Amino acid sequence: MESIRELVERRGREERGSPFCFFEDTCLTFGDLDQRVNRLANGLTTFGLVPGDRLAVMLANHPDHVCTFLALAKLGITQVPINIHLKDFGLGYLLEHSEARAVVADSRFAPQLVAALAGRTSVELVVWRGAPTPAGAVRTVSFDDVVAAGAPEPPWAAPPSDHLVSITYTSGTTGPPKGVMLGDKPYRMAGRVAGQAAEVRLGDVMLTWEPLYHIGGSQVILTCLQYRVPMALLERFSASTFWAQARRYRATQMHYLGGVLGLLFKQPPRPDDADNPVRIAWGGGAPDHLWEPFERRFGVRIREVYGMTEAASFTTINLEGRVGSVGRPVPHFEVRIAGDDGRPVGPGERGEILVREREPGLLMRGYFKDPERTADALRDGWLHTGDLGMVGADGFVYFLGRRKDSLRRRGENVSAWEIERVVSMHESVEECAVVGVPSDLGDEDVKLFVKPVAGHRPDPLDLIRWCELHLAYFQVP
Q: Of 87, 106, 161, 280, which sees the most CB atoms within 10 A?
């Protein structure tokens, strides 16, 4: 299978004039992509970055984000994707823990980024997409200047095949975020299997709204390169405009996650709901009670999947349309359902989902600078997912929730530890605890319990405002 670098360059040669990315009123061709990626990659080396460096990426969905992802993969620079909603402690922790040497960011995120950079000496350069903003003693330059400084030819040397493409931080336990280390091969496999799940063929258009800082978004970049189809890239998901955007770009595939199907289904019914070009809706978390009604109303077929960042994004895919199931294991992974003692359980019995690779190099390399949690997750060749499931006698897998003390809200993994750390800093709070509670939109809502300091009676609204100052929107109780 071609490396990411080889794939970009071949598409640039063979599909030069074909569309690769529709964004608002613009269209980036495969040829445009190849040249802009080369210029950005060469420009970054002009400003002193070298293979093996770590670079944090804090960009909204935009073609330049796509180019940044591919340029870093071409160079062998490890990207650290940053959730654009992070601020204060959460953002500062990722920059400090990853020891990023540089940051590429949209200038609209300057207030929270500059504040988070204060006192952190590993970052030497900030590349602003938009108006450059001073960042203390850190050198700053504009994204356009970096591109202009680079030559359009491929970088002089390809990275080694085992280079580290990304350190992607994921929450979901009571501890701090974990940096999942992924190489080139997991991303390529994620793109390939996404195309299988979405039944992609020539002439299709992949509607892509999920943030590119998640593997669920970035894998579509590889899908489009591998299957020679364009993406219609949206900056964000909007239930009220979603179908109009699908019609505008003649999109044939849509992705769902984190309550998206429920949000779309709650929109007022229209007589032309099924009059849209989307053929396949693929993703994770389709509610059983909405599955078939959604298909009938909007004229699409649902393809449910299960996976996680640590295992090349996909472990199972449901191509048969079995309602409620996440499908069967993909050929390159073996799935086992294990009891508390680690031993396999029988068909129909609940247990933890374990994953083992049949093809080397697909599981994560571990959690960055976290050998203890790496050893806990990877045992005897098996990835312990922390998720509950069961397998029927016919081989279909069913996802039954999370085994660990974690929650998922609006498509984001949320660490109770991060929220509790912020709330406990409030002057009126002695102790606190966070749990997930069911949400009618799917996933969970965040519920906060507080033990006040003696003599204090904190106002709930004051606590919410405190959280809004220091946490991403999806972490606020």
A: 87
Q: Rounded CA gap, 437 and 417, in Å?
A: 16
360, exposed or middle or buried, with CB in 10 Å at 0-12, 13-18, 19+? exposed
Q: Give, as one character, the DSSP assignment of residue 362.
A: -
Q: What would the two tokens of residue 258 be?
A: 């984190």
C-alpha span between 40 and 136 (Å, rounded): 25
Q: Which of 108, 111, 146, 105 is nearest to 123 (CA)?
A: 105
Angle at 78 between CA 200 and CA 95, to 5 degrees: 115
| Amino acid type, 246 | A
Pairing of strands 429-438, 444-452: antiparallel
Tokens read off for 320: 């048969």
CB 100 within 8 A of CB 122: yes
- And the tokens for 381? 């060749």
Q: Is the dihedral of CA 127, 102, 52, 90 positive or negative?
A: negative
Task: Please name the residue that has the structure tokens 């071609």.
Answer: 2
* Euclidean distance between CA atoms 77 and 143, whole angstroms: 17
Cite the DSSP H helix spans in 84-126: 88-98, 110-117
DSSP SS3 for 232: strand
Contact between 73 and 5 under an 8 Å Cβ cutoff? The reply is yes
* 329 closest CA partner among 294, 305, 309: 305
What whole-number distance in Å separates Cα of residue 384 and Cα of residue 353? Answer: 7
pLDDT tens digits for range 347-374: 999 899 999 999 999 999 999 999 999 9
| pLDDT one-digit tens code per residue, 407-458 | 777 667 777 767 887 887 788 887 788 888 888 766 788 999 998 888 888 8
Query: Residue 226: helix, strand or coil by DSSP?
Result: helix
Please, what's the b/e burial string for 16-27 (b: 16 or more CB within 10 A of its CB; e: otherwise)? Answer: eeebbbbbeeee
